[in-house]
């Protein structure tokens, strides 16, 4: 009998992620040691039990009718009697006497002994007591479970009673399936070994044909199992186990292809079969309660589905771990070079499950597994994971999955001492935190209730009473539904936002010189309207020190400026702060934009201009506004067409916000002094003494939209009349226009019209002259020339 099965449950998938390899090895050694000790104790106990049962049950050997103790002086007489012949008795009589002696058990006691007649009864009772003291546990016969009954006592002693435990039909089916699977595995191994031997003597072309044939057979097998599960999931859910077993394909020629196909097939099966709710384990009371047959089938289906889904995720995790550790197991059919492709497919399957089943079991485990891969050295795997989490943030309306992901990202950034890729933090820009207010307003009750005057006019006393009770109930239901949804969302989004700002502030405090600073500044600019007022002063001081240090690039400085003005245009209106220094920084940085790589910074400049000039027009002086309008018109001369369109649209918005800037369209000088274009202070550059002559040059631009905007601005940017813009251009924001006319795809937007083609006269070869006589003369000359040559 082998050692008993350990009752200790297998560690969960989440605990396996947090447990180190050394700890797992120590646990395994301790478990094996305990099993050996318990098995040794059980063997000793079974040996003791067998000896006790053997002494209690064994029948006494038959004795002759009379037994005498031989005396020393009778030994010679016995030898003499034994030597006498026995032919005085016949053979039949001798057999009869021996058989009677065997059956006469009541006279087989030792007559020569001096013990009392009833002493055997006492011995039997003592044996019974000793037997009762021993545990009633027998060794299993032929590995079958046995139920031990009370023993039976007869004249010969105690006879143990036992019956074989009845096996249910389900257990028999499971045993048969296991036997079939073992047989199938053995057959596959034999086939693989035989195939490996047979492939040695084939040519390259024959090997390729054999491989294609095997792959086709495996595809048909995978398709048959998958279609069976999808057609009837409750009845055929056990086929998932058989399909999952194909992940251990041992044939080296087709192992990589088959494993990839099986991983993708299982992923699609789980996406189709998984329910739209989370499956929880049954309680003890629910397990013991009798339910309908359909309910029991559904419970069994859910239990098998969750277990197989868990094993599938563990298989994918093991593939990724083997790839990361460059670890090759014994008897492995896949070489180390092929692990990269398997790991890429495994990551793709995990990302698909992350997006398709955010409500199902083990979703947090998938997040814990994929977040470290966002910082992987392999660019393909990293981009795959980052894109998946961006999509998850966009489609997550409740916020639970976003909160779990942000927590894991925060722990990853802290554990790696802020040495992570910037793309990891850029994924946080896709969070739907700023949409909370819209979602809450949409859930407010919109039902209109009658007031007292309307009730008194239109309803009777009894109807008013019923109407009052009905409206009270409706209000309670609406408030309960809206408040629960609102409170839950607010709680989740508040925790998510706190974790995001915790990551950003840690990097600003401890790693402000790292490569993560642009992503942090961009994130602060994105979520600045949600920052608490208590942090405004400290944050503004930190951003101002960063800009003045001169260590930031153009893009980082623009993100700092955008963050500051986003704060001041939102809750920061209550603060009495004049951000003149930030206006000066942006005014100084505008000429650095050009038609090269910095063209990507134009969209940040457009957002800053919208926040600084349009939304804060009451806090901006006219001198500052005119200086920005003049510098923007100068900037539009040396930018790409998409950037020029956006800058001219921002100039149009500034002219509408500050109507007095229209005298820049006149040549007359306003006031004393002259314009200082090289001065970086917008308040003292005397922009009122110049004109927007750049608009006249832009009217001859090669881009039609730029020409249209330049002509529109040179006439004062009117809203009506012949010089007004069309509806499509006038209603779009500068950022939208910049994106619509982008040149990233190396295409001209709008497309260039083809030049008109002139019809040319085509001369026909042959008799093409109008004068017939001249044509005859030419033909005659040519004919005589050919004859003379011949």
TrEMBL record:
Write out the coiled-coil annotation as residue ranges: 452-486
Q: Which GO terms describe its molecular function?
A: chromatin binding
Q: List cellular component terms (GO).
A: nucleolus
Q: Check the record and name the InterPro entries matching this protein.
A: ARM-type_fold, CCAAT-binding_factor, Noc3_N, Nucleolar_cplx-assoc_3
| Domain Nucleolar complex-associated protein 3 N-terminal: from-to ranges | 218-312
Indicate yes or no for the key word Zinc-finger: no
Q: Which family does it belong to?
A: Belongs to the CBF/MAK21 family.
Its recorded name reads: Nucleolar complex protein 3 homolog
């Amino acid at each position: 009998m082998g050692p008993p099965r350990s009752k200790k449950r297998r560690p969960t998938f989440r605990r396996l992620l947090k447990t180190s390899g050394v700890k797992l090895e120590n646990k395994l050694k301790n478990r094996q040691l305990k099993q050996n000790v318990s098995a040794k104790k059980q063997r000793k106990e079974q040996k003791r039990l067998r000896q006790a049962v053997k002494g209690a049950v064994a029948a006494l050997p038959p004795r002759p009718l009379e037994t005498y103790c031989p005396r020393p002086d009778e030994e010679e007489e016995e030898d003499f009697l034994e030597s006498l012949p026995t032919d005085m008795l016949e053979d039949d009589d001798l057999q009869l006497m021996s058989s009677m002696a065997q059956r006469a058990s009541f006279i087989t006691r030792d007559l020569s002994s001096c013990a009392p007649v009833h002493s055997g009864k006492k011995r039997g009772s003592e044996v019974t007591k000793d037997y009762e003291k021993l545990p009633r546990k027998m060794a299993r016969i032929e590995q079958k479970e046995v139920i031990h009954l009370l023993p039976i006592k007869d004249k010969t002693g105690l006879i143990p009673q036992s019956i074989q435990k009845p096996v249910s039909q389900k257990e028999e089916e499971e045993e048969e399936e296991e036997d079939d699977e073992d047989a199938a595995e053995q057959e596959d191994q034999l086939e693989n070994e035989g195939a490996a031997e047979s492939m040695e003597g084939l040519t390259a072309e024959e090997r390729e044909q054999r491989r294609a044939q095997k792959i086709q057979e495996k595809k048909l097998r995978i398709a048959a199992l998958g279609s069976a599960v999808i057609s009837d999931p409750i009845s055929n859910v056990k086929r998932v186990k058989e399909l999952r077993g194909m992940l251990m394909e041992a044939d080296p020629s087709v192992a990589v292809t088959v494993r990839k196909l099986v991983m993708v097939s299982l992923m699609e099966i789980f996406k189709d079969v998984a329910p739209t709710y989370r499956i929880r384990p049954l309680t003890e009371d629910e397990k013991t309660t009798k339910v309908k047959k359909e309910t029991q089938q559904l419970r069994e289906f859910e239990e098998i589905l969750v277990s197989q889904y868990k094993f599938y995720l563990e298989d994918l995790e093991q593939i990724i771990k083997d790839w990361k550790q460059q670890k090759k197991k014994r008897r492995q059919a896949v070489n180390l070079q092929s692990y990269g492709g398997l790991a890429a497919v495994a990551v793709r399957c995990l990302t698909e499950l992350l997006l398709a089943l955010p409500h199902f079991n083990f979703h947090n485990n998938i997040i814990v597994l994929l977040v470290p891969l966002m910082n992987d050295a392999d660019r393909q795997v990293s981009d795959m994971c980052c894109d998946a989490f961006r999509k998850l943030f966009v489609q997550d309306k409740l916020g639970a999955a976003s909160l779990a992901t942000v927590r894991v990202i925060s722990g990853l950034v802290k554990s790696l001492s802020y040495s992570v890729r910037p793309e990891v933090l850029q994924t946080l820009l896709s969070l739907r935190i700023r949409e909370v207010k819209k979602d809450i307003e949409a859930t407010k009750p919109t039902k209109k209730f009658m007031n007292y005057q309307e009730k008194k006019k239109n309803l009777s006393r009894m109807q008013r009473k019923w109407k009052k009770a009905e409206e009270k109930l409706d209000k309670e239901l609406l408030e309960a539904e809206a408040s629960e949804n609102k409170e839950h969302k607010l709680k989740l989004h508040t925790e998510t936002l706190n974790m995001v700002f915790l990551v950003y502030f840690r990097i600003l405090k401890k790693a402000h010189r790292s490569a993560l600073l642009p992503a942090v500044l961009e994130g602060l600019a994105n979520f600045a309207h949600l920052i608490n007022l208590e942090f405004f002063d400290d944050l503004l001081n930190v951003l101002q020190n960063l800009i003045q240090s001169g260590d930031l690039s153009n893009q980082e400085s623009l993100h700092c400026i955008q963050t500051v003005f986003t704060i001041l245009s939102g809750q920061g209106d209550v603060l009495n702060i004049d951000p003149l220094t930030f206006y000066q920084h942006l005014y100084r940085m505008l000429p650095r934009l050009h038609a090269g790589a910095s063209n990507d910074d134009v969209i940040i400049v457009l957002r800053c201009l919208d926040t600084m000039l349009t939304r804060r027009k009451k806090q901006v002086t006219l001198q500052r506004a005119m200086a920005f309008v003049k510098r923007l018109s100068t900037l539009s001369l040396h930018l790409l067409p998409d950037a020029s369109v956006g800058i001219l649209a921002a100039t149009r918005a500034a002219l509408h916000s500050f109507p007095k800037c229209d005298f820049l369209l006149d040549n007359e000088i306003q006031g004393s002094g002259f314009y200082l274009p090289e001065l970086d202070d917008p308040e003292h550059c005397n922009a009122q003494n110049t004109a927007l002559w750049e608009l006249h040059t832009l009217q001859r631009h090669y881009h039609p939209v730029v020409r249209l905007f330049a002509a529109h601005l040179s006439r004062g940017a009117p809203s009506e009349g012949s010089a007004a813009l069309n509806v499509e251009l006038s209603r779009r924001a500068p950022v939208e226009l910049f994106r619509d006319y982008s040149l990233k795809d190396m295409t001209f937007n709008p497309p260039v019209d083809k030049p008109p083609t002139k019809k040319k006269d085509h001369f026909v070869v042959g008799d093409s002259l109008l004068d017939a006589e001249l044509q005859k003369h030419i033909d005659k000359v040519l004919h005589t020339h050919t004859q003379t040559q011949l």
